[in-house]
């Protein structure tokens, strides 16, 4: 019976369908691209280097976010959340782990690339495994706080997906949110900015630009910036005054991030795409060599 539930305030049936479709397309595309990245890494032995391990973990975090988005797409087509309150808390928790890990691995990749191109220090497996473990443990820990009462996971305006509830704007929310912004946006963004700036200078010195060093940070800020700004705004103002549709557009935009990450770090990465090509076609590609600066 279609009439047994009410549509969320500010949304028509058509809106639910459109948001569901946007989540579905972003989820399926991201899932597909990140799955290729993950399977290639597991199947092609030559790819399994400590540096590529960061990219592999980034793809794991991102595919987890894709699954989160696909769950939301499914609920949007149903027009209600079928998994109850525990399901909502778990959905928020799982989504938060994915996001925090994804952003952390972007910083780890930047840090590693700086050493690859500039200091020529080799990344050892022990270091890669330690950093990866720390990133996952911290992501799970920070994502668990709202389950323990520091912040709360609740429905987004469409009531078909769950995230950190920014509409409360109480002290718990404000302190938790500001800590997240510092540790999971400002710190990674600063790391990326300084590492890619160093790489850019190195490329300029050897007159060989191997990739566009401006893109990684721009993509992160383009996808996550607007949503995070709304969450910061919610620390000081009542977000319920912002239209529910706009409040839904921002997380949907953020959930496209795994698509861009896959294109940038898997298919646009000279040390990774060869392995993907090998996996997809069976043809080997010779590894690129890094020029030393004079």
From TrEMBL:
Keywords: Chromophore, Disulfide bond, G-protein coupled receptor, Membrane, Photoreceptor protein, Receptor, Retinal protein, Sensory transduction, Transducer, Transmembrane, Transmembrane helix, Vision. Residues 33-265 form the G-protein coupled receptors family 1 profile domain. It is found in: Membrane. Its main location: membrane. It comes from the Eukaryota. InterPro entries: GPCR_opsins, GPCR_Rhodpsn, GPCR_Rhodpsn_7TM, RPE_GPCR. GO terms for cellular component: membrane. The keyword Transmembrane helix applies. Receptor for all-trans- and 11-cis-retinal. Binds preferentially to the former and may catalyze the isomerization of the chromophore by a retinochrome-like mechanism. This is RPE-retinal G protein-coupled receptor. It comes from Anabas testudineus (Climbing perch).
């Amino acid at each position: 019976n279609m009439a047994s539930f009410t549509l969320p305030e500010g949304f028509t049936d058509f809106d639910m369908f459109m948001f569901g479709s946007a989540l579905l397309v972003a989820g399926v595309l991201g899932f597909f691209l990140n799955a290729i990245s993950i399977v290639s890494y597991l199947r092609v032995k030559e790819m399994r280097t400590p540096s590529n391990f960061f990219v592999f973990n980034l793809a794991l975090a991102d595919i987890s976010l894709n699954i989160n988005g696909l769950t939301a797409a499914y609920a949007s087509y149903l027009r209600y959340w079928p998994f109850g309150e525990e399901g909502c808390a778990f959905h928020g928790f799982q989504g938060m782990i994915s996001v925090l890990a994804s952003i952390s691995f972007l910083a780890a990749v930047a840090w590693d690339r700086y050493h690859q191109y500039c200091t020529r220090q080799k990344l050892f497996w022990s270091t890669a495994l330690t950093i990866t473990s720390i990133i996952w443990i911290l992501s799970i820990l920070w994502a668990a706080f709202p389950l323990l009462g520091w912040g709360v996971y609740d429905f987004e305006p469409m009531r078909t997906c769950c995230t950190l509830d920014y509409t409360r704007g109480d002290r718990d929310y404000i302190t938790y949110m500001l800590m997240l912004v510092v540790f999971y946006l400002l710190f990674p963004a600063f790391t990326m900015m300084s590492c890619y700036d160093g790489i850019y200078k190195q490329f300029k010195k050897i007159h060989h630009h191997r990739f566009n060093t401006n893109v990684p940070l721009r993509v992160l800020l383009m996808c996550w910036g607007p949503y995070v700004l709304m969450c910061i705004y919610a620390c000081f103002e009542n977000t319920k005054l912002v239209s529910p549709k706009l409040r839904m557009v921002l997380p949907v935009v953020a959930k496209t991030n795994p698509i861009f990450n896959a294109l940038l770090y898997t298919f646009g990465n000279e040390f990774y795409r060869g392995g993907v090509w090998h996996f997809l076609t069976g043809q080997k590609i010779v590894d690129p060599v890094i020029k030393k600066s004079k």
